[in-house]
Amino acid sequence: MKGIVFNLLSEMVEEKFGLEAWDAVLDKAGSEGLYVATETYSDEELLALVAAGSELTNIPANDLVRAFGQYMIPRFAEHYSVFFEGHTNLKDFLLTVDSVIHVEVRKLYPEAGLPEFTYDNGQPDKLTMMYRSPRKMCALAEGLIEGSAAHFEQPCTIHHEVCMHKGADHCALELEFSR
Ligand code: HEM
User: Fold this and answer.
1) Residue 129 above 70 pLDDT?
2) Is the C-beta atom of 130 inside 6 A of ligand 1?
3) What is the span of the domain harbouring residue 158?
4) Which of 4, 44, 65, 97 has its CA 20 to 30 A from that of 76?
């Protein structure tokens, strides 16, 4: 994971729980906490920080990761506004994640660990996003979708029965848009 992800995580923890909380997380995870935005750090380090945060706050790790996904979108909308401009609705935006957004991210950071999304777009008010990644961060994907829904002010429900954590080879994120 890129340093930018770690920097956003520290920002979220400091904002929601205070500076001492982030220091405690770093202590518990045995991390130094110095992250350069464009450098790559191990996925294990991110997982260790999430596990430490979860233990210290008593919030399940999945919920923390999901909240982190929600938190990221307004920051992305600021730093990478070009990906949001030109879209007036959530579905059109989500359809560009795999073929546009992450393609551009890969050009900026060739060694980025990015997931693969394929889509089932059979009905106007629905979209299924098939998520595949060795990192199995479907909770982050859910949070990013929820953050995007808030950004476009378009409520959407997520059904997530088929899941890599339940033995499937992908996660099916079945979205339903209410308008
Ligand atoms: C403008 C919007 C977006 C930008 C700029 C962006 C960029 C990125 C970046 C920089 C990473 C980290 C790569 C690394 O550290 O190695 C990442 C990972 C990820 N992104 Fe996006 N992303 C965006 C939107 C989304 C959305 C809407 C979704 C979900 C539908 C999504 C799903 C994910 C997931 C799940 C990962 C974690 C890595 C994995 O699962 O393998 N992204 N993205």
Assistant:
1) yes
2) no
3) 67-177
4) 44
For the entire predicted model, the pTM comes to: 0.95
Summarize the confidence of residues 152-174 as an average pLDDT: 97
pLDDT in tens, 68-125: 999 999 999 999 999 999 898 999 999 999 999 999 999 999 999 999 999 999 999 9
Whether residue 8 has its Cβ less than 6 Å from ligand 1: no
User: Does residue 95 share a domain with residue 159?
Assistant: yes
- Counted domains in the chain: 2
Instruction: Let me know if 159 is exposed, middle or buried by CB neighbors in 10 A (0-12, 13-18, 19+).
Output: exposed
- 69 CB near ligand 1 (under 6 Å): no
Nearest atom of ligand 1 to the alpha carbon of 137: 40
Question: Which H helix or E strand runs over 118?
Answer: strand 116-120
What is the average pLDDT across 26-45? 93
Round to whole Å and give the CA distance between 49 and 43: 10
Centre of ligand 1 to C-alpha 49, Å, is: 18
User: Which residue lies with its CA nearest to atom 31 of ligand 1?
Assistant: 141
For residue 31, is it left (φ>0), alpha (ψ between -120 and 50) or beta? beta
Are 125 and 158 in a shared domain? yes
